[in-house]
From TrEMBL:
Listed CDD domains: TOPRIM_primases (cd01029)
Gene3D superfamilies: 3.40.1360.10
Protein name listed in UniProt: DNA helicase
SUPFAM superfamilies attached to this UniProt entry: DNA primase core
Keyword Nucleotide-binding: yes
Amino acid sequence: MWLREEHVNGDAAGWRNKAPNIFNESSTCTFFQLIAYFAKRMISKETLEKNHVMQRADDQHLPSFHCSHEGCNYQNVIAFTYRRDGMLVGCKYRSVKKRFWQMKGAEKIFYGVDDIKDADEIIIVEGEVDKLSMNEVGLCNCVSVPNGAPPSVSDKETSIEEDVGFQYLWKEKEYMEKASRIILATDGDIPGQALAKELARRVGIERCWQVCWPKKDEFSFCNDANEVLVNLGADALREAVKNAECYQMKKDN
């Protein structure tokens, strides 16, 4: 899903000063709502804290968690903080209705980029919750793309400088080249497969493996990492990644 960006006066350094505090103690009631929300998605408090997942509480026009505690008028929004070398460089917000937005001026980087500095294998997923899901089962060499997936594969050839939508990938060229394998764990739908193809042709198809999501039930397949975790459990998610198929062979079949 593509982001809707909202204009904020000033550069990235300016809006960083407005970033929410991690688990603001003045909003303890809403903190527990955040924990409960992610618990339903099988993601623990420890994983949230490790990834500096925040909660923005304000009384503006952005609906999300509606606190039922007496005297609390906050409407709360999940904030996924983007960091490089531990420093905050961007923030992406999400409501429980899967509405996404982020501030202009923020640097576009992989979510969790610090986790792949020394990784021999790199797992790339399509969303922050899928990255958290991988971490939850012990797969810490994982990043998420910041912009979701394109609707389809583009046939346009562009230079690195003009490849605006994938600058987050080119910025980490050193990490990508150092890794022996790139495991593409994008969503199983058409946009997710388009994203996998776009990533593979940039980092080298011969270096890529692709995760095939298992069946969720008799009639359907899981679409992403979190669906596997929620419906089939941690072992099934680890197994799906372990059994990733060579992208070139999958493409040729």
